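Researcher: Sequence of Putative membrane protein follows. Predict its structure.
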Amino acid sequence: MNDYRTYDVVAKTPEQLASLRRITLVVYILYALSWLIGISAIVAIVINYVKREDAAGTLYESHFTWQIRTFWWALLWCVVGVLSLVVLVGAVILFATAVWSIYRIVKGWLYWNDHKPMPV
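Model: Prediction complete. Tokens:
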């Protein structure tokens, strides 16, 4: 049994793959911009869900999954961090979430740049 994914399930034209590649990059940029303009993360997650089906069967499917998980886990930990600010643990949780989120955006972009799927 193979322990890797194949990405030839759905044949895509070179134009479709190029479009998915650009969209994936735009979403990474929107997530990075969310540090300055928070609403950009909402735009990014909407794009992820709208274009997710188009990415099925391509290496960009793993990037979309990576991006979606990053968004929801970061949101969850930000809520926990804000709620626990009262007990002085929240700042640590928020800082750790920020570092983790930046790491995921950078790692995703590096894999995107190398035309590699994400290890999801």
